[in-house]
Amino acid sequence: MFKNDSRRFTKIFPEGSFKDKTILVTGGTGSFGKAFVQACLDRLDLKKLIIFSRDEQKQFDMHEEFSAHPKHSILRYFIGDIRDIDRLDMAMRDVDHVIHAAALKHVPIAEYNPFECIQTNVQGTQNVVMASLRNKVQKVIIISTDKAVNPVNLYGASKLSAEKIMIASNHLSGTIKTRFSVVRYGNVVASRGSVIPLFKRFIERGEKFLPITDPRMTRFWLKLEEGVDFVLSSLNLMRGGEIFVPKIPSMKVSDMARWMAPHLEHKVIGIRPGEKLHETLLTQNEASYTMDLKDRYIVQPFSIFDDHLTFDPKTSQKVDDDFCYSSDQNPTFLDINDLPKLMQGMAA
What we know:
10-stranded mixed β-sheet, globular, alpha/beta, 3-stranded mixed β-sheet, 10 helices, about 30% helix, single chain
């Protein structure tokens, strides 16, 4: 039975975590960035929180939105592009932790604009690494995606490259001690670019059908607040080189459509170029290095960068060598009756 325990990851970072720390979040005006800023203001006692993005209007809107918050004075807004290493270098002065969320994320747009995708997702990640090393940042986490696993589109391939860059950068830090890790998760419910806003537009326009690529298609899902909690808890746990994967539910996209608009027919349009029938968060090749914790999996690096492990051997165990974590074989698989709990608290 699916349980809507959306705050389960908060237990990993107790009250007082990150006290007096300075955090910079790239892509800070996106869906994740806004939720991350809100969580930091509400629940952490930071010294400073830097919002780094290239959209001045979104920064202006965020400033207006958060100006009434009692802790708004800790916010700093930096206009900048992760393609510009000099600007990143300036923004990261005296920063303790970096959350790297900036990326080009739309699969069709990346396919049509490959040079732009590579410059942002790959070269931009390298710039984040170099600026972090120059400024002796303590911890850096990149937010990745299930599309980076066995990628079939350029977006996924670019995020796989970004993961590899981030993990390998632990070997570059030397005496600086900067540590780099990865958070990898699936679709965020109702975020920009997900299928839910698309279905909502069809419903609001009074269309007679919803487009379904394939009735068998499955996807992993998590709430935006869960994604924020998971990133913060992984930041607290990380020692360097890990890939953190949350245990989250999956379901058929067609069930999501049926729940949102039970009165509308489904029109099967076929799988688009670069799209998978099912997504995977962990492959069998990664199983040899993967530990099973209560709320997540951790893919350990080939070499441990510190004398202690990320996990407690007493409360975790290695997964089987043939383990694979895919959206169609997920033990937590939702049906249409579970959706009200998953969507609880989401905007209508």
